[in-house]
Specification:
heterodimer; A: 372 residues; alpha/beta; nine-stranded mixed beta sheet; 9 strands; B: 96 residues; alpha+beta; three-stranded antiparallel beta sheet; 3 helices; globular
Chain lengths: 372, 96
């Protein structure tokens, strides 16, 4: 039986409603994470009045799920003014923060305002590792204090554990820490290229063997046998003609602190600016969004006939950063390979010369993309 | 007249999606789809207008139903929504 959530998502797709939007309030941050894809200078963020006006536009456009993120959201002194307006407009609000600046009064206010959930970045259970990634001494201690304060106020909290070379061995302990605190745990091994296209940061990605090991850990993926099962083959031709790659630009959008609209936070294709046009006009009439919406799985070069077609979670945004949103996302090819041990069509076509043998061959392909 | 007052739960989220009012309970993130009558009650639940007055002014005429039946049905609906943490009920006005 399909859930009501699923039905709502389908209705939003059919009607062209932007059901979910991530709005980054600032790119400024109190941390300097080694893997971060943002430029932390303020190049002219939207004012409080601009953001409040934008929130009203988003509500009118039908946005239900609003994620407020950054940068660090608490770097904005008007954060609670924005949050209060978002809740007055009855969005389901999720916050993303490092929680370093969460103190008891702030935690209480977040709970009072009925925020749906707060996602907190935690990289390791060890101070030396976490703080080396954030480059902020004492950050793990402060982050965990903030997490506890929110939890104690009854706020739903989750830990987002981004895995990279520095911390890939720590995830079982971070998961255990989350469980001991009664906090949900999420793990992601995707390092995203910089917003300006610089891909050097991808060198921080965990290597293929480590990724394969994580994917075979039942505690992380549920049923590893099922998760890592051999690929089921290309998607059925008829399904491929109609299937959408993902919700980016279809029922989801991302807005930067400067008002720029993109299909997704991980899909840096500019589609308009709310300082120049109403959000709904960008959403309905942007040629770039129309282009994104025209893509069907059958159109994706190299993917429509790939053996992973039926189970791959290809990200069109990552493909875009590789130079072709209608092409494969090598990072996702690497994941499929780490998961199943079967190379994707894209990886095979690259015919990479062996470097160290085994999975590492393909991982090297992903991390040696030229900067475009 | 009923002395029941209704207010939206402070932690609920709501949006009209394709003509259907969708509400998410802040208590457990359950999602609900409200029918036309329940949507009217949700939108009118300002905490200070008695339920009976909401029913009289916004339901009876619109749905061609007698006042007594409408109020009985409305009370059932709002109690159900309150059980799911979507509405707050009180016999005195509620601070919204």
């Amino acid at each position: 039986m399909k859930s009501l959530m699923h039905e709502m998502g389908n209705r939003a797709l059919e009607l062209g409603i932007p059901l979910g939007v991530q709005l980054d309030l600032t790119y400024r941050c109190n941390e300097r994470c080694v893997h971060c894809y943002l430029d932390h200078e303020d190049h002219g963020e939207m004012t409080t009045a601009e953001i409040v006006g934008l929130l009203r536009q988003l509500a009118d456009a039908g946005v239900f799920f609003l994620t407020l993120s950054g940068g660090e959201i608490f770097m904005r002194p008007d954060f609670f003014e924005i949050l209060e307006e978002a809740r007055r407009l009855t969005f389901s609000v999720k916050l993303k923060t490092n929680a370093v600046m969460v103190r008891p009064a702030r935690a209480r206010r977040i709970a009072q305002l009925g925020v749906e959930s707060v996602q907190i970045s935690v990289y390791s259970h060890k101070e030396e590792t976490h703080d080396a990634i954030t480059k902020l001494p004492g950050s793990l201690r402060r982050t965990l204090e903030g997490a506890r304060m929110l939890r104690d106020e009854g706020v739903k909290v989750s830990f987002a554990n981004v895995l990279m070379k520095h911390n890939s061995g720590d995830y079982p302990e971070v998961k255990a820490l989350a469980e001991s605190l009664g906090i949900e745990y999420k793990c992601d091994a995707t390092i995203t290229p910089m917003m300006d296209g610089d891909r050097a940061v991808l060198a921080l990605n965990v290597d293929g063997d480590t990724l394969a090991r994580i994917y075979r850990d039942d505690a992380m993926v549920g049923n590893a046998g099922e998760y890592c099962a051999p690929p089921s083959g290309p998607m059925d031709e008829q399904d491929a003609l109609h299937s959408l790659p993902c919700s980016a630009g279809h029922s989801a959008a991302y807005i930067s602190p400067y008002g720029e609209v993109y299909p997704c936070v991980q899909f840096p294709m500019p589609c308009g600016n709310v300082r120049e046009q109403r959000f709904v006009d960008i959403w309905r009439h942007s040629p770039q969004l129309a282009d994104v919406r025209s893509i069907r799985v059958a159109d994706v070069q190299g993917c429509s006939s790939c053996v992973h077609g039926g189970s791959c979670s290809r990200c069109p945004g990552l493909a875009y950063t590789e130079g072709n949103m209608r092409g494969p996302s090598t990072q996702d090819c690497e994941r499929s390979y780490a998961r199943t041990g079967v190379p994707s069509k894209n990886l095979l076509e690259r015919r990479a010369p062996p470097v160290t043998g085994g999975r590492q061959v393909f991982w090297m392909v992903a991390t040696q993309q030229p900067v475009k | 007249m009923s002395d029941l007052y209704v207010a939206r739960a402070r932690n609920a989220a709501a949006r009209m999606i394709g003509g259907e009012m969708m509400i998410m309970s802040g208590r457990d993130s359950s999602l609900f789809s409200l029918n036309a009558t329940a949507s009217i009650l949700w939108e009118a639940a300002d905490g200070v207008t008695p339920l009976a007055q909401i029913v009289e002014g916004r339901i009876v005429g619109a749905f061609d139903i007698d006042r007594e039946s409408a109020l009985k049905d409305a009370e059932e609906v709002v109690r159900g929504l309150a059980d799911h943490g979507i509405l707050r009920l009180s016999e005195t006005p509620i601070d919204p």
